[in-house]
Amino acid sequence: MGNKQKFDGYAAQYDEWFMKNEHLFTSELRLFKKALGDIDGKRLLSVGCGSGLFESYIDCSNIEGIEPSEDMGKIAEKRGVNVIKYGLIEDVDLPDETYDIIYFNGSSSYMEDLAPVYEKSLRALRDGGRLILLDVPKESAFGFMYLLGKSLGTYNHEFLQNVMPELPYPLALASSGVWHSTEEKIDVLKALGAKNFRYYQTLIRNPMYTNEEPEEVSEGYKSGGYVAIIAEK
Ligand SMILES: C[S@@+](CC[C@H](N)C(=O)[O-])C[C@H]1O[C@@H](n2cnc3c(N)ncnc32)[C@H](O)[C@@H]1O
Known about the structure:
single chain, alpha/beta, Rossmann fold, 7 helices, 8 strands, binds S-adenosylmethionine
């Protein structure tokens, strides 16, 4: 596709970050599994499937993916995700009323204008299908940390001294993020007619302690550093 994508050149660093932050990854994976629920016999679409890291821990034989970064998507294909399109969701035509679940695991955080993208996704869901959004909320401690790093151009600053996680998320990926608040996304979905909302969260601890041990998933969205919104068509 030619254009350089935000994640091109970061595929190895992205996976490595999760592998080194093993407990943080386990907490996020628990949230991911809880949000997806039973996927047996269902048709799923992962928007911004990346390297398919999370999918590699579940049965991904019915999971299709869309991914703009070839670096990331090629790894997802090796892990068993059926990457149907290399491109931005904004540029892809989706078939109507086709999927049982469409999910964005961390990818809304790299998109400016969410309404057209969620509208397109809702159209592609069957009646009663679920749209699932998992992200670092802008209002969380992680959100503040990424925005501070982005505005300072470094994590290596006196404001952040002795309060950072040992291995923070790569600054380039924190800086290219368009961090949205959870309520901003809920408002967009409500305006589009989505219903029956549910919320789950994890990464309740402050970022510098997050990787000490895996966390449980809890209901709600007001405390977590990683939050799932589940809405129905
Ligand atoms: C934080 S990563 C998450 C990757 C994967 N879902 C995971 O959970 O490991 C965000 C992903 O969204 C993709 N992305 C960014 N903008 C996108 C867009 N407009 N349409 C589709 N995917 C996008 C990026 O290339 C990247 O792979």
